[in-house]
């Protein structure tokens, strides 16, 4: 019998499926629930157990991990008669790894405490590739004792794991992360269009740029997307649009000016309005191409 905690995983999407599979590979018992049968089949094929409901998934779990798109989905799975808090056992640890508003995380922790459930907010960065390779950055908010207890789980999912402060702090750092990533992708996209219109060998140019001060994880991860115009979603524009709304709203609340971030947020919104919301966020290149006169 394993001494590792029993895990319930709610949300088996682009990020959740490979992350849950990495926990199974690390020896954890994982029971999962999601709305799509094919995702449940994938979990069982990897050695996990499919649950018929949230209640069935969480009832015997020591740790409950959630990975869903946004605050409304977190609230939907956490609250109500069919939700996590109604069926989790006393003393269970709920780790929400979704990217949501800091206030949603604070409220969840408060409401869960009343039910005897501990909470960490632990959003991640690294995209689908980082999830598959188990090299995610994980930014955590909550109590240190709970963080220490969950560290083994985090170690199976990522490489850079930091307790950032009290409840909501992980989400605040994730919002800043999404700001930096969006601005970086936009700058790369503008550079790509500039280079191509100038007749430069794009592959060679991106290689040398990535070896200097202009280099970044974004350019490393997204270079092939730009070169091949491959915008299969690793992280969808729809989700980055949501995240830019989170960071601009949170910045307004604390009195922080985001002049460049606000412009990029509008560019993300415009790309989404043009029907590209389901594409990878590297598709910001398409918006720059349109502005530069290309038909895409």
Automatic annotation (TrEMBL):
The alphabetized UniProt keywords are:
NAD, Oxidoreductase
Gene Ontology MF term list: 2-hydroxy-3-oxopropionate reductase activity
Species: Streptomyces melanogenes
Looking up Pfam families in the UniProt record yields: NAD_binding_11 (PF14833), NAD_binding_2 (PF03446)
Question: Has keyword Glycosyltransferase?
Answer: no
* Tree of life domain: Bacteria
Enzyme Commission no: 1.1.1.60
Any idea what this protein is called?
Answer: 2-hydroxy-3-oxopropionate reductase
Protein family (similarity comment): Belongs to the HIBADH-related family.
């Amino acid at each position: 019998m394993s001494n590792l905690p029993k895990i319930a995983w709610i949300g088996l999407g682009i990020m959740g499926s490979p992350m849950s599979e990495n926990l199974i590979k690390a020896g954890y018992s994982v029971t999962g629930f999601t709305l799509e049968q094919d995702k449940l089949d994938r979990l069982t094929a990897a050695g996990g157990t499919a649950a018929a409901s949230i209640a069935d998934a969480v009832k015997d779990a020591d740790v409950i991990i959630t990975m869903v798109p946004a605050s409304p989905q977190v609230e939907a799975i956490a609250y109500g008669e069919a939700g996590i808090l109604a069926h989790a056992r006393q003393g269970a640890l709920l780790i929400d790894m979704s990217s949501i508003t800091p206030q949603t995380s604070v409220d969840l922790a408060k409401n869960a405490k009343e039910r005897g459930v501990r909470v960490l907010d632990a959003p991640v960065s690294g995209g689908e590739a980082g999830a598959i390779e188990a090299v995610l950055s994980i930014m955590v908010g909550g109590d240190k004792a709970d963080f220490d207890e969950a560290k083994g789980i985090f170690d199976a999912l990522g490489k850079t794991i930091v307790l950032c402060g009290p409840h909501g702090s992980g989400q605040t750092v994730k919002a800043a992360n999404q700001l930096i990533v969006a601005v970086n992708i936009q700058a790369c996209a503008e550079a790509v269009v500039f280079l191509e219109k100038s007749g430069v060998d794009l592959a060679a140019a991106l290689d040398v740029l990535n070896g200097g001060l202009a280099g970044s994880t974004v350019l490393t991860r997204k270079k092939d997307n730009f070169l091949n115009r491959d915008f299969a979603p690793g992280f969808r524009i729809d989700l980055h649009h949501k995240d830019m709304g989170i960071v601009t709203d949170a910045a307004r609340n604390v009195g922080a000016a985001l002049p460049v971030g606000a412009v990029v947020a509008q560019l993300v919104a415009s790309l989404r309005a043009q029907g590209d919301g389901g594409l990878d966020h590297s598709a910001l290149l398409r918006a720059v191409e349109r502005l530069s006169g290309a038909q895409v």
